[in-house]
Amino acid sequence: MVVFFLIVLGSLSFVSGTSAEPIDVFANSLSLDTGTQLDGPNGTLIYRGGFELTSPDARFGGLSGLVISSDGAELVAVSDRGWWLQARLGYDLNGDLVSINVGELTPMLSVDAQYNEGSVRLDAEALVRLPNGDFVVAFERPHRLWQYSGTNAVARSLRVASILKGLPHNRGIEALAMLDGERLIAIAESGPSASAMSGWVFGVTQSESFSYPYDGYFRPSDAVRMDDRRVLVLERGYTERRGVAVRLMLLDVVTITAGARLQPRQFVELGPPIPLDNFEALAVRHGPCGALLVYLLSDDNYSPRQRTLLLMFEFVEME
C-alpha cells in the first residue's frame, strides 16, 4: 500500500507563553565503577558514567525518548505526560559522564497549539531528530507522529494515522530512528502474529512495512542509526516470572526492505553489575577520539518502585 507521508522541512509557528520552566533535577551516583565491562556475543559495553535522576517536581519522570547533541552537552527527552525535558550534561577530563545541569520542562503543544495536562493523548513514546534539527515524536493513544521545529513549537501532524490505527491501544510505536536523510524507521511493540512485531519505513511519498521478530519476552523499546550500515535497537522484557531484562541488537540497513522479516543480531544483554530498569530510550554519538558512546534512559512510569536511570557506555565491537 502506498500512502503519502511528509517530513516538513520548513519552520513551524511558535506560540507565546510556552517558555521552558526551570526544574530541579538531581544526579545521584550509582554504586558502579567507571570502566566496568559487559561482554556480549559481538562486542563489549564499557560503563562510562551515569546516575539515577530524581526531582521533587511531580511532573518529572516517564521519560521514553531521548536525543543527545553531537557534542554530548545537550539532552532532550519526552515524557508519557507530554513534557519536553532539556538539560545540560557534564563530563570529566576522561570524557566520562559526571553531571546533569539546568533542567527545564516545556509542555508539548498539539496541532491546535494546546497543552492538555494529564491527557492520554500526550503519551510520547519515541523521539528522533531530523537532519534539519526538527523533532519527530511518536505518540500512543491515539497512535500518530507529530513533527516539531523546536520544543516550544506547535505540532505538525504527519500523515500516517491511517497506517497505525489498527495497533492496540497501548502497544504502538516504541522505536523510531532515521534510516537516512529522508526516511524514518518505526517499530511497534505489537504485531500481526505471536512471533512478529509491526514495522514501517516512512519515506517522503510512501511507506513500506516489514516485521520484527518477537520471542514472547523481548520487545523493541527504541532504535537509533549507528552508522551507514547499521541500526542499533534497544529491547526490554518484563514478566512477573522472569523480571526485567535489557539487550542491544544490531540491524543491517540493507535488510530493512518492504515485506522483510528482519533478523537482528544480539550485541549484548545487560545484567549485573549494570543496574536494570525499564529502559525505553536510546541515543548514540561519537566522542572526541572517535569512540561510539551509547546512552540509555529508563522510564519510571511515575512509580516509586521504579527509577529514572541515565547511563553512558562506550561501544566496542569484536574484531
Folded structure, characterized:
This protein is mainly beta and 319 residues long. The protein has one domain: Neuraminidase (6 Propeller). Helix content is 1%, strand content 50%. The chain contains 1 helix and 23 strands. Strands 2, 3, 4, 21, 22 and 23 form a 6-stranded antiparallel sheet that branches. Strands 1-8-7-6-5 form a 5-stranded antiparallel sheet, with no helix packed on it. β13 and β14 form a beta hairpin. It is globular, with a radius of gyration of 18 Å. Residues 1-17 have low confidence and may be disordered.
Helix and strand layout, with pairings?
Layout: E1 21-22, E2 26-29, E3 37-40, E4 43-54, E5 63-68, E6 74-79, E7 83-91, E8 97-107, E9 123-129, E10 135-140, E11 144-148, E12 156-158, H1 161-164, E13 173-178, E14 184-188, E15 196-202, E16 207-213, E17 218-225, E18 230-239, E19 243-252, E20 265-270, E21 279-286, E22 292-298, E23 308-317
Antiparallel strand pairs: 1-8, 2-4, 3-4, 4-23, 5-6, 6-7, 7-8, 9-10, 10-11, 11-12, 13-14, 14-15, 15-16, 17-18, 18-19, 19-20, 21-22, 22-23
Keywords:
single chain; 319 residues; Neuraminidase; six-stranded antiparallel sheet; 1 helix; globular; disordered N terminus
Question: Quick summary of this structure?
Answer:
The chain has one helix at 161-164; strands spanning 21-22, 26-29, 37-40, 43-54, 63-68, 74-79, 83-91, 97-107, 123-129, 135-140, 144-148, 156-158, 173-178, 184-188, 196-202, 207-213, 218-225, 230-239, 243-252, 265-270, 279-286, 292-298, 308-317. The longest helix is centred in the middle third of the chain and has 4 residues, at 161-164.
